[in-house]
Amino acid sequence: MALTLSKKAMAVKPSSTLSITAKANELKANGIDVVGFGAGEPDFSTPENICEAAKKAIDSGFTKYTPVPGTMELRKAICEKFRKFNNLHYEPDQIVVSNGGKHSLTNIFSAILNPGDEVIIPSPYWLSYPEIVRLADGVPVYIRADKSQNYKITAKQLEEACTEKTKALILNSPGNPTGMVYTREELEAIAKVAVEKDFYVVSDEMYEYLVYGGETHVSIASLNEEIYKRTITCSGVSKSYSMTGWRIGYTGSTREIAKLMSSVQSHQTSNPNSIAQKAAYEALVGPQDFVERMRDEFEKRLNYMVDRINAMKHVSVLKPKGAFYTFVDVGGTFDKSYKGQKVGNVDNLAKILIEDYNVAVIPCNDFGFDDHIRLSYAISMEAIKKGLDRIEKYLNDLE
Ligand SMILES: *Cc1c(COP(=O)(O)O)cnc(C)c1O
Fold this sequence. Notes:
Strand content: 15-25%
Strand order of the largest sheet: 2-8-7-6-5-3-4
CATH topology of the largest domain: Aspartate Aminotransferase, domain 2
Number of domains: 2
Bound molecules: pyridoxal-5'-phosphate
Radius of gyration: 21 Å
Structural class: alpha/beta
Oligomer: single chain
Largest sheet: 7 strands, mixed
Order of helices and strands: HHEHHEHEHEHEHEHEEHHHEEEEHEEEH
CATH superfamily of the largest domain: Type I PLP-dependent aspartate aminotransferase-like (Major domain)
Number of strands: 15
CATH class of the largest domain: Alpha Beta
Shape: globular
């Protein structure tokens, strides 16, 4: 025996989005005026009524253990939200509330995977998916969804990627980092393959309220009874109500899966924070005008940003239909020169941008696309303008 460490834990890649945000914050702390396009959370405060509900929870002594999968009150409110917004019928015993959407995803894979099971991840993907799958002893299998297909996989690609070991597909619509939204027809075709090949669909709908340009969000589980049985629908209050720090995510699934997730959670974290549950309840049943205001503001920024970027040299972006990110193709800069040296790759581009132009962007190699960057518009319009001016200057400086 020796004092060795877990190979599984050591194989985890620390989140690169967090490290770039840290770098930007460090420069800011040193008095440098950095524009950070890395933001992975809304720049709005949690609404007052939600904060008040939390204060009331503390003052009334709602500070003890709750049922592991969440209070009945909250689970009923989640069922009601699923019914009204997603056209999905779940009973409270099909709901598990966890410590944020990430924790919900972790629980899902603990409940469905055995070692070596394959999980199909459309690429570009949110960088946590492969790590979460591997931590649950699953094997990520990627399907590349190019720009020419709006960064969305087709049912045909899905069918071709299936093997004996395929256990699940992760679907993320609206998507991070692409901002793309799958249409009902596209989801129907994907659902058909999932039912025929008999695997689960993990549907991460964290950005369901943030869709633009008249687009509508469709939950794949709502399409028919067969796909409903195979889908675990995952959402939360983090992005929709600007509650990232509160840590409340939830799932709707079959009773069987909910029971397993709850049993895993009972030994790991028990219930999610009791006060945050009260706050999440208020978020779901209270006034919803905040969501609409935030969405409208995001759409303004998005329209401005897309027009500006597409007027710049060497780069282009498809107009996102959801979430709060633009996914920018910067491949056209790689053979250009900066200060006599080829830009070459996306890491170098991000390095030049932060060091010489004081703009933080997310290089998307960890999202499966090494010639794209992600720019968030969850920052003020003023910051967006300033940041885009700097990026434009950089692109004009290339030779
Ligand atoms: C932010 C995010 C989540 C989870 O958020 P939590 O903060 O853990 O609730 C899940 N999926 C995607 C794609 C996200 O961007």
